Amino acid sequence: MVFRKALLTAVAVVALAATAAQGEDKVQEPAFAAAEAAKDPFVWLEEVEGAKALDWGRKHNEATFARLKNDPRFEPIRAEAEKVLTAKDRIAYGSLEGGKVDNFWQDQTNVRGLWRRTSLDSYKSQDTQWDIVLDIDKLAKDEGKNWVYKGHSCVGTDATRCLVYLSDGGKDAVTVREFDVKTKSFVKDGFQLPESKQTIDWADENTLMVATDFGPDSMTDSGYARQVRLWKRGTDLAKAPLLLEVGKQDVWARPYAVRRPEGTTLLVQRGPDFFTEEWHLVGADAKTTKLALPLGIEMQGVMNGDLILSLRDDWAVAGKSLKKGDLVAVPLAQAAAGKVTNVDVIYSPPETGAIQGVALAQDAIYIDLLDNVTGKLLATRKGASGWQQTAIDLPANGSLNIVSTDAFSTDVLVSYTNFLQPDTLYLMEKGGKPQGIKALPARFDAAPFTTEQRFATSKDGTKVPYFIVRPKNQKADGNNPTLLYGYGGFEISMTPSYMSVLGKAWLEQGGTYVVANIRGGGEFGPRWHQAALKQNRQRAYDDFQAVAEDLIKTKVTKPAKLGIQGGSNGGLLTGVTMTQRPDLFGAVIVAVPLLDMMRYHTLLAGASWMGEYGNPEIPAEREWLAKFSPYQNIKKDVKYPEALVYTSTKDDRVHPGHARKFVAKLESLGHPVMYYENMEGGHSAAANLKQRAEVTALQVVYLTQKLVDGK
Fold first, then answer.
1. pLDDT per residue over 325-344, tens digit each?
2. Where are the domains of the chain?
3. CA distance 575 to 568
4. Mind telling me the catalytic residues?
5. What is the Cα–Cα distance from 148 to 586, expressed in whole angstroms?
6. pTM reported for the whole predicted model
7. Is 18 helix (H, G, I), strand (E, B) or coil?
8. 92, 187, 341, 532: which sits with the fewest CB atoms below 10 Å from its CB?
């Protein structure tokens, strides 16, 4: 359960509050933000569904399509990308649920997708027989809706009673409806919730813990629920008992139910900001007890009476000095009683390592570990002498990902990949040795290429790792078209992943690909992330620029041949880099970005990220934000690379106004820029695989025109 990472995962190739902007009553803006709006000539572009703003977007789309779609390379790249993304021989990644394996599948026929289920034995076989649970294409057609599937959650040992989450066009906001897997139908008069940014969890088969929009004053400034209520079947939700209510300036209130063989634990969370958590235990009488825990933690689960926590900050407790980055076990009973007298360290990563993921099975805790940005997998079990780790024998020098565990099973699914090696899915049945059960076929010939890890030296002397994927016979003459990708935020790590689409579209066409592991990310744990928070944000941008300079210094490339790409927080990264060091680059992709850091806290979920960037309403914090905010730092007398900026009208996480206003200001000052706005698709700017293929092709053609053709 990682709420934060689920909300902010970067989309490396494809992309990557006032609900007032979505059409509700206008809320009162903070003083400084309101003053900024009053003098902003392009503030009208913040009206998400405004007729004038949409018309502006459509006209820009026409111009961009004329440049990119009319390029004779566009259609072959788009068709090849769609072929790869929708191929029948992809790995059908599954989740272990109720003794079965669930999968969500999209292809050329099932554009919106299928929710499918099979047995573990069938899943292991090469000819898996799937039972279709819900056809989203059919549902959308039958109901006349633009449904995008956003997942499901089930209750019971057989996982047959579920909640289905459906989004209109790909937004984060979802409609929730109860579904019966046995009858393959929505439950008549079952649980149902209208569209909202909401979090729901099953307390039992007839009770939900609900955090949703309960009406006036029930949402935080970030656009998330302030309340969690306990809703019993057949009762009025508005009268459901209140479990927790948080302040408007908190990020959210959220429920979390842990169901295990040893029992069910109900918890509710207050999120003061994106990186702190306050937890309360829900008792049998629906009364809550605040747990005696520090705020700088990340809840990973409950096991045999222990809370399993990752530490974001150091913690001195019970005579021990625990380090940020440690995984620890805290007796739930002690935390509920108000004093923790014993804490076990489950695992403490080395200086070069960081815990990336934690998953609890019935008998063990599995740890996805990074060591110098390459993956390892540990299984840890509690014995008579404490917690003991066992290293799992899996391939080295790549990325490992715990795909699924089940609290009622000892089975584990885990995948391995690297830039040049296709994914392999392993099953550890009953906690045994990993057995490869599925493998992705090669999408391009990797033999001519190699991957290296190199280090650049940042402005303050910090060594910053990066991966470079290049031809083995590459000449260090500075003439290699190179794409540099980065993110650098929210403790999210950029790890090696198979270049299934870019292998053919970029590497085989002579391109070099680079991924920078800059500060702000999680490659070396909380310390690496916290080194670039708030007033230290410039360090992330210095790191990224240092990698670019190292590529030029070592004659991998030169500015005219070097492009950068980033989405979401990575779009902020490329926007900052473009405005600070335009001399370093020939191409810039700015995807679903934050760019106006003077008003970001008033736009959609922006207020939830002040723990990352700072608060513009506070003069001291506004000062550092103003220094790097891309929108405010565009200058008339500077020559910028012609950037490709894109967003989605349906992105209800990062407001499309950021991208729109940035482009409008560049144009007003006479700078060339290209813009694309997908009218649906949410934060990924693509609602389905076909749209993802199109967005990918637009980017590759743009990069080819700028870095190869020199246009």
1. 999 999 999 999 999 999 99
2. 17-82+443-709, 350-441
3. 10
4. 568, 683
5. 36
6. 0.93
7. strand
8. 341
